[in-house]
Design brief:
With 60 residues, the chain is α+β, with helices and mostly antiparallel strands. The protein has 1 helix and 2 strands; from the N terminus they run βαβ. The chain is elongated, with a radius of gyration of 15 Å. InterPro entries: Metallo-depent_PP-like (IPR029052).
């Protein structure tokens, strides 16, 4: 393995957050995100959490 890992980043891609909390399938995306962030507290060595959203690509 070349080099040592110096940072661990949790990347959450397109969490489908909306003002109503629910996504197009009726899933409470805000609650799902809350549970993910709650559980990640127990993952050792996470240095950063990054969020990304797919712009212009509809949820299928």
């Amino acid at each position: 393995m070349p080099g040592k890992t110096t940072h661990r980043i949790l990347h959450l891609s397109d969490p489908h957050l909306t003002a109503s909390r629910a996504d197009e399938d009726g899933v409470d995306a805000a609650d799902s995100l809350d549970r993910i962030l709650h559980d990640v507290r127990f993952v050792p060595g996470i240095d950063a959490v990054a969020f990304a959203r797919e712009r212009g690509i509809p949820h299928i």
